[in-house]
Amino acid sequence: MRLCRFAEGRLGLVEGSQVKDVTAALDVLPGYHYPLPAYDVLIANLDRVTARIREIAPAAGTVSLGDVKLLSPLANPGKLVAAPVNYQKHLDEAKADVQIHSNNPAHTLTIHKAGLFLKANSSLAGAGEGIALRQLARRNDHEVELAVVIGKRCNKVSKEHALEYVAGYTIGLDISIRGSEDRSFRKSADSYAVLGPWLVTADEIPNPGELDLWIQVNGQTKQSSNTKYLILGVPELIEMASLFYTLYPGDVIFTGTPEGVGPIEPGDTLLAYIEKIGEMTVKVGAAAGFETAAETVRAPAQA
What we know:
- By secondary structure, the chain is an alpha+beta fold.
- It folds into two domains: 66 residues, no CATH class; 207 residues, Fumarylacetoacetate hydrolase, domain 2 (Alpha-Beta Complex), CATH 3.90.850.10.
- Helix content is 16%, strand content 31%.
- Strands 1, 2, 3, 4, 5, 6, 7, 10, 11, 13 and 16 form an eleven-stranded mixed β-sheet that branches. It has a five-stranded mixed β-sheet with strand order 8-19-18-14-15, with no helix packed on it.
- The longest helix is centred in the N-terminal third of the chain and has 11 residues.
């Protein structure tokens, strides 16, 4: 099943080039009071929601996919966890290119030593919302990745059982400002974590370790690889993450990007694809107040 969010938080069932409005299925969600759950309630109740969708979909209203503004398929993920340098060829290019590593020693570490990092939830955006670049005097790069959505609470899960905790998969764009700062700082700007175009439930992708993926910038292919080249695959990443964090429904793991990362600028159009998920088009613009290269900000110098 392919589930999208569109318009003002409507829930859609994607079938070919059409979207069925199945927002009414959200009525099966439990009521909550403050303090609200620190996880995505739709994902936590995904079985109930999808069962209701099957009941109401035949009579649901339909709209063309091309006519809807696609939001992130997740509204309230508790954590955005990301894997650095998880393709060997990307690690090699990061080591070799000063514009990528910026003399940051963290870029020379393998993922086994670097571990994972977190992106701010406020960086989340959907395909239809686009990317609003900041720090235009610095290089902003595209990074296409398979994104894994956790389906149920897990803690210290072995790789042998890790896929049992996956709700589904989506395309992730981990947009990056190059520089010497910590990854979480440079990759957490608003709109720098794009998810979409929809969530594909785990039953449709039994093997996430053999999926083609690529991204084009203005029609030119920049990155092209397969998830079989991940250094740590999806099960291993879930195992690593769950050794440090309790993972909750709706938490997202960005699995890492292959070689070919490169700069993007306002006015660019990105087309990202992952096998068995599909493709999404994302427009690139400039954030308000950051329209010129002169509008660059670095951390204050130490007194």
